[in-house]
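Students often ask why inverse folding is considered easier than folding. One informal answer: many sequences map to the same fold, so there is more than one right answer. In these notes we will look at a single instance of the problem. The structure comes first.
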């Protein structure tokens, strides 16, 4: 039986010491102070960070930026390359509107005013100590007013414009730029100060400036404006009447003399959160070298075009190998990565993917570990680093994964068949966009946890050997794992994770077994319960999110699809650890049963929101609206809807998916219309004559429905009405 990998570790230091011998591994944490042996440099005094109280503040030259979120949660050490704020006004503690030009409606005014209380609410008061901000008052205006802030792009390379803003109410205006072809970012009033970012904007001329627009009747307070030649926003840079440059954060660790580092074999690991991705250069995360050149190195770098991670080995000024496991990265999401090497072989691990490469020559003479850059601080990483691990012994993917992860991390294994496999390899194009959307949504909801999503599904598999004797998950007669379940466990081991949750869907193939009398309803249900029990015996009390069966257009398993759906509902209702996953029936199909690429992304987003809630995040709209009851008078059926995240639904007429049964006889629904935000009124072709009456939303294959006519709410993202009967 597969055993739990035991990912827990001390948050500060874990030393592996051979009896009577030297320490063989080390952990460097970067949450509050520099670990022993780590050196930090930065040559400016205009850099900022949020402190342990969540307040934005200036950081002195040479002081490491241990950053936090607005709630005071530690994010790690902030590392960024050299960036210039090209604005030329004073963006902190202003006393005048120097180098800001007002235009537009003549009734508008520009001034410097005290806004101490509002700055404190946004936790900007530790930086903006005199309480003063700029105020663009267009309350008396009938047209648009604007200000252009001094300082030009100076070239037509992509730039990012950012500013902290609050306003009176509604849509107060927009962040944009001077020149033609400008994009705009609308700004909303009635909120505390927010940082608005117009990213990756390409100027049409070199003299482009930042522009802030105020709509007629609106008032805008603003501070901390920034114009930088970057594709994304970096941390706030202080300016005082002229452009200013924040220098590169440089972090190194001396490897010489450490018993936990060995040139010939060992491992490195790092936990990190990117702020964004550079378009023209690599971003280096962790590189060992000799302190002066890159002739002999081992390290990680983010790819310039695909944002995926690569690992490489160089010896004697020649690249020995360059790994990439196509683990695409997402800004603001915590990641972990590791590399282990010995005897001409290296294995990189990130995102639940391991990639093995061989090489001819071992690097030698590595004495310095560059954290967040490569040799001499070149090609820096932009983001947070929380932890680095170092060891003098090689690892397997499983043991390397155990070293990288923490018990609070979220590791989801996808199980079942192709309706989960499609998140990793879609049927339409082979895309893994579903996986990436799942990681993005779950990772943004839990920004201090590494989120891993691993493919453990087997296409075309069945729950039980009675449906398919070769490609199945559980052998009922033998009470034993089938080949698909063995593959599931093997993929977990290879990914170096211990699951903390499972996303599961299985039933499409079994519906054929049920239709063809190979498998009974009870056998399908028993097999599903046995699979879940086996998983939980292996990994403990972890939640299983069950993605329900959708619809199909050409398999002709009518009757059996509904059996699968009903059993899945029973599993959700009867087993406390089984949670309702996403409905899939409303997506556009690529073929007879599989969603198109956009459908897999939509389903992944819904499942990730549900998973995020299970792990403690507060997200509204995770299951979709629910049909809660109905009443009938003659041929009129009044259906009540309870919302989950939304407040209304569409379409208003021609709604499809409702099925009314008089006993076993279906009575056609000839019309379905919205009566109110919580009521749908149905018209039946005839009145029932007796028997038990039931109302279904989504019944069986639903091969002939029009997707646009299915009921969805107005939440973000929009969610379909739950498939159920009452």
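Output (designed amino acids):
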């Amino acid at each position: 039986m597969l055993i739990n990998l035991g990912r827990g570790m001390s948050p500060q230091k874990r030393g592996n010491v051979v009896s009577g011998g030297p320490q063989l591994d080390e952990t460097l944490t970067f949450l509050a102070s520099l670990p022993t042996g780590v050196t930090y440099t930065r040559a400016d005094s205009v850099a900022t960070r949020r402190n342990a109280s969540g307040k934005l503040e200036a950081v002195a030259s040479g002081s490491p930026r241990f950053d936090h979120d607005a709630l005071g949660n530690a994010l790690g050490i902030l590392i960024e390359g050299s960036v210039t704020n090209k604005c030329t006004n004073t963006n902190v503690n202003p006393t005048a509107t120097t180098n800001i030009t007002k235009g537009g409606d003549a009734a508008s005014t520009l001034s410097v005013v005290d806004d101490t209380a509002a700055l404190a609410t946004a936790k900007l008061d530790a930086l903006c100590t005199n309480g003063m901000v700029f105020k663009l008052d267009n309350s008396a205006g009938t047209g648009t007013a604007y200000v252009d802030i001094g300082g030009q792009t100076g070239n037509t390379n992509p730039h990012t414009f950012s500013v902290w803003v609050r306003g009176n109410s509604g849509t107060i205006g927009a962040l944009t730029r001077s020149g033609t072809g400008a994009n705009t970012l609308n700004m909303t009033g009635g909120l505390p100060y927010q940082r608005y970012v117009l990213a990756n904007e390409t100027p049409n001329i070199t003299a482009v400036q930042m522009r802030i627009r105020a709509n007629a009747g609106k008032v805008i307070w603003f501070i901390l404006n920034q114009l930088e030649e970057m594709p994304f926003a970096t941390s706030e840079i202080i300016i005082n009447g002229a452009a200013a440059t924040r220098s590169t954060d440089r972090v190194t660790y001396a490897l010489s003399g450490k018993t936990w580092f060995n040139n010939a074999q060992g491992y490195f690991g790092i936990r990190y959160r990117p702020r964004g991705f550079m378009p023209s250069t690599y971003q280096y995360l962790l590189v060992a070298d000799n302190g002066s050149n890159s002739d002999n190195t081992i390290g990680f770098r983010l790819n310039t075009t695909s944002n995926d991670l690569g690992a490489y080995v160089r010896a004697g000024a020649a690249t020995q190998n360059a790994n990439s496991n196509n683990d695409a990265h997402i800004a603001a999401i915590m990641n972990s990565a590791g590399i282990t090497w010995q005897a001409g072989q290296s294995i990189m691990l990130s995102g639940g993917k391991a990639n093995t490469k061989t090489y001819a020559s071992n690097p030698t003479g590595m004495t310095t570990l560059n954290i967040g850059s490569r040799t001499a601080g070149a090609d820096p990483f932009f983001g947070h680093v929380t932890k680095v691990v170092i060891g003098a012994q090689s690892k397997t993917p499983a043991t390397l994964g155990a070293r990288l992860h923490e018990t609070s991390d979220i590791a989801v294994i996808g199980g079942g068949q192709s309706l989960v496999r499609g998140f990793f390899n879609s049927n339409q194009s082979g895309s893994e966009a579903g996986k990436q959307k799942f990681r993005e949504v779950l990772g943004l909801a839990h920004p201090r946890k590494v989120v891993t999503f691993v493919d453990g599904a087997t296409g075309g598999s069945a729950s039980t050997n009675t449906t398919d004797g070769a490609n199945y998950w559980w052998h009922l007669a033998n009470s034993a794992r089938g080949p698909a379940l063995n593959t599931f466990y093997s993929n977990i081991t290879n990914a170096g994770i211990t699951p903390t949750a499972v996303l599961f869907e299985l039933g499409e193939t079994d519906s054929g077994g049920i239709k063809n009398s190979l498998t009974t309803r009870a056998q399908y249900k028993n097999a599903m319960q046995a699979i879940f029990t086996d998983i939980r015996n292996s990994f403990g009390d972890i939640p299983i999110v069950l993605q329900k069966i959708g619809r199909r257009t050409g398999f002709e398993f009518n009757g059996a699809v509904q059996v699968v759906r009903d059993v899945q509902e029973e599993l959700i209702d009867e087993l406390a650890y089984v949670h309702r996953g996403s409905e899939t029936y409303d997506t556009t199909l690529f073929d007879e049963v599989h969603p198109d690429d956009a459908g897999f992304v939509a389903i992944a987003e819904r499942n990730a929101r549900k998973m995020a809630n299970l792990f403690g995040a507060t997200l509204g709209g995770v299951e979709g609206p629910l049909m809660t009851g109905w009443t009938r008078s003659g041929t009129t059926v009044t259906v009540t809807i309870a919302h989950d995240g939304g407040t209304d639904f569409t379409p208003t007429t021609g709604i499809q998916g409702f099925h009314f049964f008089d006993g076993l006889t279906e009575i056609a629904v000839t019309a379905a219309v919205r009566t109110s935000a919580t009521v749908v009124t149905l018209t039946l072709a005839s009145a029932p004559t007796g028997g038990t009456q039931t109302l279904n939303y989504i019944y069986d294959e639903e091969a002939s429905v029009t997707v646009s006519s299915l009921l969805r709410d107005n939440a973000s993202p929009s969610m379909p009405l739950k498939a159920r009967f009452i």
